[in-house]
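Q: Got a minute? One more chain.
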Amino acid sequence: MPGVVGRFLPGRGPGDGCGATTARRNPSPMNSLRPLLPLTVLALGSALAQSAATPVVLLDPFPVLAHPSGADERAASVRIVTADAAALPATDLAGLLHSVPGLVVDQPGGPGGRSTLYLRGGEENHTAVFLDGIPLNDPTNNRGGAVDLATLEPALLRSAAVVSGAASVRYGPDILAGALHLGGQSAPTNEAAMLVDAGGTDFRRAALGASRVLGDGASSLHVGVAGADDGSLAAGSRAERRVARGAFATRLGSTNLQVSLWHLRHEADSFPDESGGIEYAVLRDLEHRENRQTAGSVRLDGEAGAGRWTASADAAQFEATVGSPGVLPPADNPYDAVPPSTDDTRLRRYRASLGYEHNLSGWATAVGVDAQREQGTSNGSIDYGAMILPTAYATDRDRLGAYAETSGKLLPSVTLVGGARVDHYDTGATRGTYRAGLFGLIGSATQWRVNAGTSFKPASFYALANPLVGDPELKPERARSLDAGLRQAFAEGRLLVDLTGFASRIRDGVDYDPVLGRLVNRSGIHSRGAELTTTWRPCDTLAVGGTLTYTNGHSTPGRERLRCRPEWRGGVSATWTPVPTFVLEARLTASSDLPDSAKPTGARLVGGWARADLSARWRMTKHCALTAALDNALDQRYAEAIGFTAPGRRVRVGLLSQF
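A: Always. Here it is, folded:
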């Protein structure tokens, strides 16, 4: 899949992303697909939570998340991370996702670089990312709708979960690799929390959150604000982000009402993709990016006869500005340059849904309809020296979908989960998807599951409407996936082992054809592998965990190895609580080599690496705790992209107050 993948370079036209071994990280409407399983959570304690509690289904001894939308995910590959698992909030989402098997999150060059998420060998725009149930994927960007995780501040997140595999039935299209749910629900409390920390490379952060039970306890309010600055321009990377979130929940008679609001602002500078980074870039000017995102949602639910109904609506606006200096061509090919460019994009998305769930004779059935409208505009230009070409476009898209799901016991120890969905677009296109799974218990300590599904992803607005490289006739990308897992408990539940095998295939991938000079449907991804997760609690004060993932992925045609994604990745972590007032966390993360490409160097392998991180929290009083961290403790010099050297050792200290 030469040139496919990853990210489109502004002004260059998509195609030289992280898919094959020959070209580097330019976004492409064919971007991300790699499993991210459990995920992240952080926080300032229960103060920075969302509203209603997320239901948890207990399959002794395995807790499995049932998502707020009501989807039964017990047959799927799901991982969860909660805030109390960390000694202190990480500086970015990549630090939170370290324990997720099948997941690769890179951030070349440090905090100013884009943070890219790959799930089970797929592209970065094949995973749907939700914040408080609202999707963050923006189809106007030149990365095919991929989400830059660097725009999110983990200090205001309380939980995260990843569903891996094609999962369109309940969540809608675009989920070729999986779905990442970020947010945080907890029981209402009367608490507040404040975090202040600072460290090397000009890092500083402050976050404040509060939760309040109102009236007779039927209502609650959660608010949180945070700001973080990180990076040093001298090192070629700088970033700052500001976040505000709020949620209100109340009960109106027999109806529950939840309202959620958030606003994100992110500004960053870094070397452009494929430039060779701080080590090899010939042109030393940095790319500048600004993002502003605002969204709100309303959700209602209540009893209806023997069942339960839900209704929701949300609206979001995404604005982004990118100014790139371009990348000079290699000496042996003076025509292979990335021209300077500018781009200003805006997306408005409106969604509404209505669902009903009913349980009859042990079979739970859910049906629903949802509608979505997207309006996107882009105003930019590419500077070819002798002429400046505009890249402006405006387009919109409407979708109406309907789904049905059911789950119930086939045998006393075997449960079936299945569902189907159909989506109709205003262009006249109609597509269906399905999911089916089985899970069961063997004795009281062994759980098995098998899950299969299909999905599709319409081409992004950038791929359809960009006047230079777009093609309005592009077909949707299609995916199908299969995974099977076995979870085993030992030593009365103190040791848990989870082994998952997976395989997926994506067709009609969107790729850049240099001969035609535009995007075409010609490539695909075949991926298979295995994920191993272990959790061991030898005593009440010590918890040890480990993950290991092997992914064999290649592009078609050509069977080229996927760029920016290692075959092996894993890690080991330990959390020690010798006394209730002190928590020490240590973790080791390692990755095998990966193929990449940059203009100054051409294609080459980026070497494997391993790094260690330490963090601690000491509660001095009931309401006050000191925090400390040593990032990249062994000062390893490594890169996740050619020339983008990762930051070295850094010390961070902070104060966490809860009252």
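A: The chain has one domain: 32-658.
Q: Perfect, thanks.
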